[in-house]
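Look at one record.

>
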Amino acid sequence: MTADADGPGARASTTLLGRYRQRVRRVGIAVLLVVGPACAATTADNAAVERDYAEHRSTVEVTAEGAVTSVLGDDSGPSGTHQRFIIRLTGATQTVLVDNNVTIGQRVPVAPADEVVVHGEYIWNDQGGLIHFTHHDPAPGHEGGWIELKGVRYQ
């Protein structure tokens, strides 16, 4: 025996399907609200880095974009081994040392002329400043940083 297309069985099936679709949409929207901001493109603010340099400001979270001008040798210290390279800020003459802790975070395979976006803590010095804390924070208490190269984010 088959159910009538307009009978009570068809209406119950349609109601259940409608509720299921509504729940799937709600879950999808919730996932986008939570995950979406983490996947959003980050906007560099080189003008803020230039202001921080001009005003001798330090311990400021920044996001900078620029071209690698020099890859320096690693430096070892009490907090681990640091990969070091210099970038020239896009649209500016200012250069900034990037001091990336590879004991905690990931080494970034940079080469001269590579375009990178760097997020970390800016420290003023008379040579243009440096950006460190370009890795995740293993002991939450500091905003995690990262370096993007060719669409890959290293933390």
